Structures are given as C-alpha cells and as structure tokens.
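About this split. The held-out portion is used to measure sequence recovery: a designer receives only the structure tokens and must propose an amino acid at every position. Recovery is the fraction of positions where the proposal matches the reference. Here is one held-out target exactly as it appears in the evaluation file.
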C-alpha cells in the first residue's frame, strides 16, 4: 500500500520539493509587498499562522536597491539556503514576464513565534501536570534548544522529572509522558501525502507516547513499518517526511 501511495503522489512530492516560492502578480513592487511576501514564506517554513510572524523592513529603501520601478512583478525566494528568523539581508529575486530582472537584498527583521506549553507556576519534581500549572503561550522560535511541546496533548497527565521554574517552556526531557498506545493494541493508521489522506489500521508492536515513532504491524501482509503516535488509538505516516529522511 505504501508503494502505491508513493507512486500516486509522485507529482505532488515533486511540486512540494521546489525551492522557490513565487508571489502573486502586483501592479508595482513596494516595500510592503516584499515584507508581506517574506512574512508568508516564514509562516510556511515554520508551519505557523501568518499572524505569528512579524517582519520589519530595516533598509535600505527599495528605490535605492531597485532604481527602476518593477511593474507587474513577482518575487521568488530560495528558502533552502537559510532560515527566515532574526535580522538579515534577505535575497529576493524580482521577476517580470518569466525573466529575472534583479536580485535585491533588503535588511529585514523577522520575528517568528510558535505556541508552546509553558509552566505557569513552579512545578515540583514528581507532580502530575494539569491545567492549573501549564498553559499554551506564544514564544519566539528558537528560544528553546530542544523541541518544545506545541500543544497540551501529551503534557496533561505527565509527571515532572525535575523541579521546573515558572515560565519554563516544557520539553520532553523535563517530563515523563505516559504512553497513549500500548503494544499489542489495534490502532487507526493515517497515511498523509500532500492533500491526499488514506486511513487504514494496524497493530502496535510497542508502547508509544505522543510524537514518538513506533513500529506498526500490517496484519494482512504481516509486514511492519514505522509511524508517529498522534494520540490515543491513532498513528500517522507522512510520506513527504519519509522521503526527506531517506535522502
């Protein structure tokens, strides 16, 4: 089934792998349009709502780096070259009628925030976490050196492994999350590739916590595969992530 899904979605994977993203046509290129374009690209890169991204144009003026007005222009950006976060010169390609006419380097300050689980009060070692001591807040991307929890799923009901000060962004190293799937149980398997979704079922071969990879047995073919635990009775296989991991 996995091979059939990969073959059926090969075209989608190819399109998703393109490094350049192009903006909608505009009557005349402005600093505001450049800012909004980069804002949208940063939201796509970090998979956050555009409302979680703030972009400020720090200079130089557009007229200084693009003396000739660009009418009916589009923008392109190679997002694979760097991360859109912090203050930096961002190389923006300006295209007109299918031809690149210029590359400009405006200095932009990009602030990306994501929703993360935060301790609202001091949490003592061994405490079971509940809504009284944990909530979701917006924090800058990269504020934590390890991957934080981005929802309360898997956090509520977990046990603290250490004393956690108030205001701390919670990560997997700080708490013991109980497994939500148990070895031997049957679960729903969600196969995702771009906009295509297929539901199946399988047997879990090991205990798993939210976000963990576990081995799943296809009871019909007797073949096993890896899937990520999404929640109780549900695991997911993302074809795009598998292809990236196999490169």
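Reference sequence for scoring:
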């Amino acid at each position: 089934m996995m091979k059939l899904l990969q073959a059926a979605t090969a075209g989608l994977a190819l399109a998703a792998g393109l490094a350049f993203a192009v903006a909608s046509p505009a009557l005349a290129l402005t600093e505001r349009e450049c800012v909004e374009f980069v804002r949208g690209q940063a939201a796509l890169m970090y998979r956050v709502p555009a409302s979680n991204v703030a972009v400020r144009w720090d200079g130089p003026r557009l007229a200084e780096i693009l003396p000739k007005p660009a009418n009916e222009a589009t923008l392109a950006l190679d997002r694979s070259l760097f991360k859109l976060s912090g203050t930096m010169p961002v190389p923006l390609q300006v295209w007109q009628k299918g031809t690149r006419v210029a590359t400009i380097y405006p200095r932009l300050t990009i602030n990306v925030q994501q929703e993360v689980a935060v301790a609202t009060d001091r949490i003592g070692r061994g405490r079971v976490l509940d809504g009284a001591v944990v909530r979701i807040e917006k924090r800058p991307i990269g504020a934590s050196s390890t991957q934080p929890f981005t929802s309360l799923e898997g956090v509520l009901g977990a046990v603290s492994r250490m004393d956690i000060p108030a205001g701390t962004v919670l990560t997997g190293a700080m708490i013991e999350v109980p497994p939500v799937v148990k070895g031997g149980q049957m679960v729903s398997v969600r196969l995702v590739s771009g906009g295509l979704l297929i539901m199946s079922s399988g047997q879990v071969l090991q205990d798993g916590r939210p976000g963990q990879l576990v081995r799943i047995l296809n009871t019909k073919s007797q073949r096993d595969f890896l899937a990520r635990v999404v929640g109780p009775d549900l695991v997911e296989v993302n074809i795009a992530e598998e292809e990236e991991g196999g490169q």
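Annotator remark: The first helix runs from residue 2 to 8.
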